[in-house]
Write a structure and sequence with these properties.
single chain, 205 residues, mainly alpha, Tetracycline Repressor, domain 2, 0% strand, transcription regulation, TetR family transcriptional regulator, HTH-type_TetR-like_transc_reg, DNA-binding transcription factor activity
């Protein structure tokens, strides 16, 4: 049974989510009921419904919390460092975090993938923030003269497209499912090197 606080709503919510996560992992999403979540969290079913309108809302909250934890791993980047180093830091950190999807549980990974596929609002927001980070790094590289793309306005979008399979959680989880032995570090290095080389040596018309 998950220990919970009787007074702190945030702790109560966290207890509900942890109880649900354990049940989703052990018995599966379909077999889990809100009553079972309440029992595992040590509270009434009515109290669980005060925090979540239904089981899907619980699952979305788990997925959103996971993405927040992933993003929290990103250190404050230093735009004074070379573009290659900054991009490897961002892309490598995200890819490493995605590859450690909750508990390594196939059931939870499958649930996360299904939830991300539904595109709840927090998913595009996460992608937008990551794209903004990459755009900042690319813009700094152009300003320093480190990069010389044909079109500076499209450079960040081109860079994002190149590393997309490594920074989009749904695409990454699906790829990891197909290639469980994928060499993540090598993929990160090759993708970032491709971006930097392309933006350093633009095609001349």
């Amino acid at each position: 049974m998950v220990r919970r606080s009787r007074h702190d709503p945030a702790e109560t919510r966290a207890g509900i989510l942890e109880a649900a996560r354990q049940l989703f992992d052990t018995v599966g999403y379909d077999a889990t009921t809100m009553a079972a979540v309440a029992a595992a969290a040590g509270m009434s079913t009515a109290n669980v419904y005060k925090h979540f309108p239904g089981k899907m809302a619980v699952l979305h909250a788990l997925a959103e919390g996971w993405l927040c934890d992933v993003e929290a791993r990103l250190v404050r980047f230093d735009t004074g460092r070379p573009v290659r180093d900054e991009l490897r830091c961002i892309v490598g950190t995200l890819a490493a975090a995605f590859s450690e999807a909750p508990s390594g549980s196939p059931q939870l990974i499958e649930l996360l993938s299904a939830t991300l596929f539904d595109q709840p609002p927090f998913v595009p927001e996460f992608k937008r923030r990551i794209a903004a980070r990459i755009a900042t790094v690319i813009a700094a590289g152009i300003e320093r003269g480190e990069l010389a793309p044909n079109d500076p306005f499209d450079a960040a979008e081109d860079a994002m497209d190149a590393v997309y399979p490594l920074v989009d959680p749904l695409v990454f989880l699906r790829r990891l499912h197909l290639e469980p032995d994928m060499d993540v570090d090598q993929r990160v290095q090759r993708s970032v090197d491709f971006v930097v080389a392309a933006l350093k040596s633009p095609l001349r018309g």
